[in-house]
Amino acid sequence: MEFSSKLLENAVYEMSQLPGIGKRTALRLVLHLLKQPEERTEHLTHALSKLKNEVNFCKSCHNISDTEICEICANPKRDENLVCVVEDIRDVMAIENTSQYNGLYHVLGGKISPMEGVGPQDLNIVSLINKVKEGKVKELIFALSSTMEGDTTNFYIYRQLEGLEVTTSAIARGISVGDELEYADEVTLGRSILNRVPFENSMKAN
Ligand SMILES: [Zn+2]
């Protein structure tokens, strides 16, 4: 792509670093922004830099939060005996949208993936095991996507829990294998949480 302006080229380059944005789309977005009134682009850059500088992660569940402890963890009406283990905050949002779940979450921040160089130490696993050791959690619900990385992560955590007093379950596979949670419709996802199965059974099914 030949650019008539270095400024334009730089902006397109930065935009194209976003996932799913190719050079052409980047150019379209940059030209669109250029046509907007100045305050539009200022609001956008301001919101992004404020997010990056001020964002907090909940000390308990690692969800993105404006406060030290997120609204879900701080809500006394939620069942703290129940902890749903998810990959990232998009899954929290998807499950919250179902209105079928009243427990807490634990956001791992990814999945174990040797291919991408992500090991257990890169994820929020130690804090999860500690939470179980403290004895507050009665049931852990694995709600990772049913990809190989998701299954590996579930199994790794399951092994870490050996000897600890906690029930483990996995969401029912209403969600087809390989599907990401966030793409499941609310009814299916809600049902698969309510119809969860003991984790051991979910392994045999695979
Ligand atoms: Zn929280």
UniProtKB/TrEMBL annotation:
The keyword Hydrolase does not apply. A zinc finger (C4-type) spans 58-73. GO terms for biological process: DNA recombination; DNA repair. PROSITE patterns: RECR, TOPRIM. It comes from the Bacteria. Pfam families: RecR_C, RecR_HhH, RecR_ZnF, Toprim_4. Residues 81-176 form the Toprim domain. InterPro entries: DNA_Rcmb_RecR, Rcmb_RecR, Rcmb_RecR_Znf, TOPRIM_dom, TOPRIM_RecR. Keywords: DNA damage, DNA recombination, DNA repair, Metal-binding, Zinc, Zinc-finger. The keyword Secreted does not apply. GO terms for molecular function: DNA binding; zinc ion binding. May play a role in DNA repair. It seems to be involved in an RecBC-independent recombinational process of DNA repair. It may act with RecF and RecO. Belongs to the RecR family. This is Recombination protein RecR. It comes from Flagellimonas sediminis. The gene is recR.
